[in-house]
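Support request from a user on the community tier.

User writes: "When I paste my structure tokens into the form, the page sometimes reloads and wipes my input. The last time it worked, I copied everything first. Here is what I submitted, just in case something in the input itself triggers the reload:"
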């Protein structure tokens, strides 16, 4: 009976890994602070216990007021890019509204130090943790975009989030309960990337 149960759990896990997609269309339902904290806690527990502290912290942006502040700074940062500067004002506005309609943002911050190897290891550990987060979220019907666009590295955006000098933004997870789930894109076959020696 226990073996049967274990197999079922593994099958469920495999299914979540296979089915998870980056989603960009969400229903109008908030992702509560409690849910984000539960997912973060569960994902953090997957970092190897003998690992040094990966120096991550998180900024949860979920109130309308906070989202408006973040999106306005994001739009300011995007104006430093020619593409957005040349874009008609209306298009910029509709882009901002689209981002504002996303239920919750989680900004992932990494504290960096002098040791470049430790910084790289921390980045890898944080990424592994975020991957667990995205799978755990998926299991509850929550999808996300792992966003790393250049606006996050602009001073105006980092200042708005009150980052310290030694901190950088790893990514922002834009998330919500899934509405539409896109089909998977084409991938390079693993065989093409392996050297057999
Ligand atoms: C490290 C990393 C950085 C990413 N950065 C961006 C990004 O800046 N903008 C974006 O739209 N998606 C970003 N994505 C999401 C990818 O576009 C997405 O994973 C890809 O479309 C594959 O889709 P899938 O997650 O459904 O397999 C990023 C994903 C990862 C893992």
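"...and here is what came back when it finally went through:"
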């Amino acid at each position: 009976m226990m073996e049967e149960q274990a197999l079922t759990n593994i099958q469920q896990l495999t299914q979540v890994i296979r089915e998870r997609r980056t989603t960009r269309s969400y229903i109008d339902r908030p992702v509560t602070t409690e849910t984000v904290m539960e997912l973060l806690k569960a994902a953090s527990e997957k970092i190897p216990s003998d690992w040094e502290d990966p120096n991550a912290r998180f900024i949860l942006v979920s109130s309308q007021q906070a989202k408006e502040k973040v999106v306005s700074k994001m739009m300011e940062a995007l104006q430093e890019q020619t593409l957005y500067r040349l874009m008609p004002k209306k298009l910029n506005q509709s882009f901002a509204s689209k981002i504002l309609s996303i239920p919750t943002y989680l900004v992932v911050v990494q504290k960096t130090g002098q040791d470049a190897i430790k910084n790289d290891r921390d980045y890898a550990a944080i990424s592994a943790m975020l991957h667990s987060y995205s799978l755990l979220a998926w299991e509850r019907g929550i999808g996300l975009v792992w966003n790393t666009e250049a606006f996050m590295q602009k001073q105006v955006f980092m200042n708005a989030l009150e980052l310290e000098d030694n901190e950088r933004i790893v990514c922002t997870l834009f998330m919500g309960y899934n509405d539409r789930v896109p089909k998977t894109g084409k991938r390079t076959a693993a065989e093409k990337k392996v050297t057999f020696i």
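Agent notes: The reload is a front-end session timeout and is unrelated to the input. The first helix runs from residue 2 to 19. The mean pLDDT is 92. Escalated to web team.
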